[in-house]
Design goal:
Distance between the termini: 74 Å
Low-confidence stretches: 4-11
Helix content: 40-55%
Mean pLDDT: 89
Shape: flat
CATH topology of the largest domain: Serine Threonine Protein Phosphatase 5, Tetratricopeptide repeat
Largest sheet: 3 strands, antiparallel
CATH class of the largest domain: Mainly Alpha
Radius of gyration: 25 Å
Structural class: mainly alpha
Strand content: under 5%
Order of helices and strands: HHHHHHHEHEEHHHH
Number of helices: 12
Strand order of the largest sheet: 2-1-3
């Protein structure tokens, strides 16, 4: 009887994460929805990601890659929304294991998967927008946030979705879409009950007049500089990663062991960094940063 009860209360699946076959045999779970913000730390895909790090540290890249393949297989079925960067760990591990063609194939698969996710999300957003905004024509944008020059013109206002309101300007359609050219912008749109709910931001004078003020970039100098700095740093990091991946594949004898190490060398403009640039240009036949 005791053994029977013990079996019941220890019925949580036991996984073999130390063999290729054991990892491959893991089945896709049927998860219950997470409560609130949720924590996926007990999910097998999270455990696989952690185990991949351990295997890599112990020099077992075959097991590490197997863990990441399996976690990527489970991710789309999870009750937690996993970002693209977690899927891309598999690509990075394949590169480190010098399986560059396979890394490129996996990256294409992940990019296509997320393209499909975005299409599905846009379809979902369109439906939700119709349901949420169908009962009100008036929406409100948030406080000046991390936005570009164009988006800055539309912060802290109320708009009419249809453009038929005599009180508020028409909402630019692009604000309801996730456009790639505004991927760095943080402007949000919320439905409001005009005449009932107060704006979440402060304003002076008459609300209607305030929302019809000239459409100009009202960011401070500091806000503009912060946005430009953040975007510049993100884009520079992406370019550096592209260069590092090239030399890691084509010129492994001169490439630093890690991308973070390369970026530290670049930040200090060290003599070793200069040597890498000169040698890479000789071998590649062109200057990557001055293409």
């Amino acid at each position: 009887m005791k053994n029977f009860l013990k079996k019941i209360f220890t019925s949580k699946p036991q996984y073999d994460l130390d063999s290729i076959q054991g990892i491959m045999n893991i089945q896709i779970p049927k998860y219950k929805p997470l409560q609130g913000m949720g924590n996926p730390s007990n999910n097998i895909e999270y455990i696989l990601q952690k185990k991949a790090t351990e295997h890599k540290r112990n020099g077992r890249m075959d097991l590490a890659i197997a863990c990441l393949r399996k976690s990527n297989e489970i991710f789309p079925h999870s009750n937690f929304s996993w970002p693209e960067k977690d899927y891309m760990r598999l690509v990075e591990y394949l590169k480190q294991d010098r399986q560059f063609d396979e890394a490129r194939r996996e990256e294409l698969k992940i990019k296509e998967l997320f393209r499909q996710f975005e299409l599905e999300q846009q379809t979902y957003n369109d439906r939700i927008n119709r349901e949420i905004y169908g009962n009100t024509d008036i929406v409100e944008t948030n406080e000046i946030a991390f936005v570009c020059e164009e988006c800055a013109k539309y912060t802290k206002r109320r708009f009419s979705i249809s453009g038929q309101s005599r009180k508020y300007p028409k909402l630019p359609e692009y604000l309801l879409k996730k456009l790639p050219e505004h991927k760095h912008c943080g402007i949000m749109v919320y439905p409001v009950l005009d005449g009932v709910s107060e704006p979440v931001w402060n304003y002076k004078g008459d609300l209607v007049k305030y929302c019809n003020r000239p459409f100009v970039d009202e960011r401070t100098k500091e806000q503009k500089e912060l946005f430009e700095k953040e975007v510049r740093e993100k884009e520079e990091a992406a370019i550096d990663k592209e260069f590092y991946d090239i030399i890691f594949e084509k010129c492994p004898d001169i490439a630093p062991k890690s991308f973070s190490g390369y970026r530290r060398m670049k930040a200090t403009n060290s003599s070793n960094y200069q040597k890498i640039l000169i040698e890479a240009e000789k071998r590649l036949g062109y200057n990557f940063y001055n293409r």
